[in-house]
Design brief:
The protein is about 25% helix and about 35% strand. By secondary structure, the protein is an alpha+beta fold.
């Protein structure tokens, strides 16, 4: 675990990526993204910003904490996600938004959370540019999730989530344009789309850079 966090602190920072707010800077895209898809994402207006928390829990075998969104939600209902949401004017920074949303959605007390750094900005068809914040979470916390947003929470081993062989690529759609997303299964849960892409980006940032 110490080696993982040492890598994270080496390769990540809490300097906000320009792509979060600058329409002239493209968010993170897979290398096989076609020109039409790149142009469509770049043209999406207005830019709406969101932040999510990627919480690595300090257990004997470290885990990452996920939520399952309620099926009634209009956007991504029933899917596996990270706690997070829209960055509001009241938020001092994207990390502050991620911590606030985690408290509101699942009752994760920010006193147990040590933010480390931002990953790449990801775009979704709903128009949001999403900034993930990697954080170290100490044991001893308790959760109380908001049933209007979250129907379940679970943890998956960090080692499993950082193993490339556990991922596969699936065809997807971005406002009518074909694309691909990462996907993996843990027990009965399917993690795919932007959540899986964030995990893949975490692995890239920490283990394909020196």
């Amino acid at each position: 675990m110490d080696e993982f966090f040492a890598r994270a602190r080496k390769h990540l920072s809490l300097e906000v990526p320009q792509a979060l707010n600058d329409p002239n800077v493209a968010p993170h895209l897979d290398q096989d993204a076609g020109e039409d898809l790149i142009a469509a994402i770049a043209a999406a207006r207005p830019i709406r910003t969101a932040a999510v928390l990627v919480p690595v829990v300090e257990r004997k075998e470290p885990t990452i904490l996920f939520t399952q969104r309620t099926s009634q939600l209009a956007d991504h209902g029933g899917e596996i996600a990270f706690a997070g949401g829209k960055i509001d004017l009241r938020d001092a920074s994207p990390v502050d938004a991620a911590l606030r949303e985690a408290e509101e959605e699942i009752g994760l007390d920010r006193r147990f959370v040590d933010p480390i750094g931002y990953l790449n900005v990801h775009a979704v068809p709903t128009g949001y540019r999403i900034l993930p914040t990697l954080a170290r979470v100490r044991e001893g916390f308790s959760l109380r999730f908001n049933p209007g947003e979250v129907t379940d929470v679970f943890e998956a081993p960090l080692s499993f989530l950082m193993t490339p062989a556990n991922f596969k690529r699936e065809k997807a759609d971005w406002k009518g344009l074909p694309t691909h997303v990462h996907a993996l299964r843990f027990e009965l849960h399917k993690i795919w789309g932007v959540t899986a892409n964030i995990l893949w980006n975490l692995r890239e940032r920490l283990y394909t850079n020196r």
